[in-house]
Specification:
Two copies of one chain form a homodimer. In chain A, a hairpin with a 5-residue loop joins strand 2 and strand 3 (85-90). With 128 residues, the first copy, chain A, is mainly alpha-helical. Residues 1-9 of chain A have low confidence and may be disordered. The radius of gyration of chain A is 18 Å and the shape is elongated. Chain A has helices at 14-23, 25-34, 41-52, 58-70, 92-125; strands spanning 39-40, 74-79, 85-90. The first copy, chain A, starts with 13 loop residues before the first helix and ends with a helix. Chain A contains five helices and three strands; from the N terminus they run H-H-E-H-H-E-E-H. Chains A and B meet through helix 1 and helix 5 of A and helix 1 and helix 5 of B. The structure holds a DNA duplex (20 and 20 nucleotides).
DNA sequence: CAGGATCCGCGCCGATACTG
DNA sequence: CAGTATCGGCGCGGATCCTG
């Protein structure tokens, strides 16, 4: 049993930790998806796995959502029915954050070709 | 001996890899520093260690700079003198990237207090 | 001064099994 | 359906030593 669930690995300052949560592998995708509206756990999982071409494990999705919820970016709404329904959405703070993240992710996506070209040029020049 | 220097750990798609480079612990600080002008290796090291309150090892700074250089974000200019002088600066592409990263990092920094407050509220409500 | 090489511990994250 | 618990590999990154 661990004392702390998600304490401080190597990230000491809180700013770095928050940035890490926002730009984490699944964090980016979760925020992006939720920017288009609230989603249920399963929907989120399927949608993300579809976009990223790689399946997100339940564990990681849960962990990501918990972290973002704790930071105040994501709201969790469980409805006590059988079977369980849990909806997630962005808080006002989370929506601001998601837009920033989207801006960076969007820019990155657009410029991937340039980066790839730069790498080829670098690799062609460096070993020789 | 490793075959690949910095190949693909778990990041398959290139977009994720680039995002990882840009938002990596030291990547953010390097881009931020270089946004204010070119710097030498040692200056960069001292400046970053000062801002982050945690020293960056030579290894990690080198690795970060190499990765960003290969991606076409950072320019490296070595002058063949004794002792060696190496200047780093942002390429036009890197400057665009750095501004996106700064926007996100700046937003994060400003809202850290709100996040901390959200965490306290979460922690107070969750165990009970 | 700038960095290459190597060792190695710690924590991330995927896989698997189980529950309300 | 939406999680929780546990185990284990492996890669990130810090420490240290060495070089042009």
């Amino acid at each position: 049993m661990k004392v702390s669930t998600q304490a401080a690995p190597r990230v000491s300052c809180p700013e770095r930790a928050v940035l890490e949560h926002l730009t984490s592998r699944w964090g980016v995708l979760v925020l992006s998806a939720l920017l288009e509206g609230g989603r249920r756990f399963g929907e989120l999982r399927r949608e993300i796995s579809e976009v990223s071409e790689i399946a997100v494990s339940e564990k990681m999705l849960t962990q990501t959502l918990r972290t973002l919820e704790r930071d105040g970016f994501v709201g969790r709404h469980a409805r006590p029915v059988i079977p369980p329904h849990v909806d997630y959405d962005l808080t006002p703070l989370g929506e601001q954050a998601a837009r920033q993240v989207r801006a960076l992710a969007g820019w990155t996506e657009e410029h991937v070709p340039q980066v790839l070209a730069a790498r080829e040029e670098y690799d062609a020049r460096t070993p020789g």
